[in-house]
Design brief:
5 helices; 7-stranded mixed β-sheet; Aminopeptidase; single chain; 7 strands; alpha+beta; about 150 residues; globular; binds coenzyme A
């Protein structure tokens, strides 16, 4: 599967699909988060929001047969906005996105990268070589969310 998937840099025309990918996650799947948080985050992740964040970080998308099925970002040394379309999860696409972002980080001269992961995704990052640092809280759209800080030496 991941052999046919291309990981490429985000283009502004991708913003609507990326927004829809995140909104679907928060509206329909992120059941470990309180409903108020899911709704607030989904509403905030608009097409304009995606265009805005693409300016201050490296954003990449995973494309299969001209369809965007995943995305991920690197802001400073932090991995952000990792999402894979539910129909394509557990097929190594998230790992392929991470590899590209890790290469970007190495090229920037970074020696390590971090991620503030929701509980659900900790195993995914662990399987990709991240080590747990500590429990933490992250602020997203005015909400405090429990998370786990992980780090990977490059
Ligand atoms: C987390 C996410 C990006 C992982 O992408 P993915 O393409 O499904 O991951 P991969 O197929 O590359 O997984 C790599 C390994 O991690 C495991 N893994 C992936 N997601 C997992 C999960 N939620 N729980 C346990 N293991 C998981 C896979 O089974 C695989 O293990 P294996 O190598 O033993 O087969 C994807 O599940 C997702 O978009 N989730 C919803 C959004 C989200 O939570 N994003 C993270 C925000 S911090």
């Amino acid at each position: 599967m991941s052999n046919n998937v291309i990981i490429r840099k985000f283009e502004p025309e991708d913003a609507q699909v990326c927004s829809a990918l995140m909104q679907d996650h928060y509206r329909n799947h992120a059941l470990d988060l309180p409903e108020v948080a899911r709704k607030r985050i989904a509403d905030a992740r608009s097409t304009e929001y995606v265009k805005l964040i693409s300016k201050d970080r490296v954003l990449v998308v995973a494309e299969l047969e001209n369809k965007i099925i995943g995305m991920g970002g690197l802001k400073g040394d932090e991995i952000r906005h990792m999402y894979v379309d539910r129909a394509f999860q557990k097929k190594n696409i998230g790992s392929a996105i991470l590899k590209v972002l890790e290469e970007e980080a190495r090229n920037k001269g970074l020696l390590s990268i971090t991620v503030n992961s929701v509980f659900y995704a900790v195993e995914f990052y662990s399987k990709n070589g991240f080590k747990i640092v500590q429990s933490t809280q992250i602020e997203r759209h005015g909400l405090n969310i429990d998370a786990i800080l992980l780090e990977k030496k490059l």
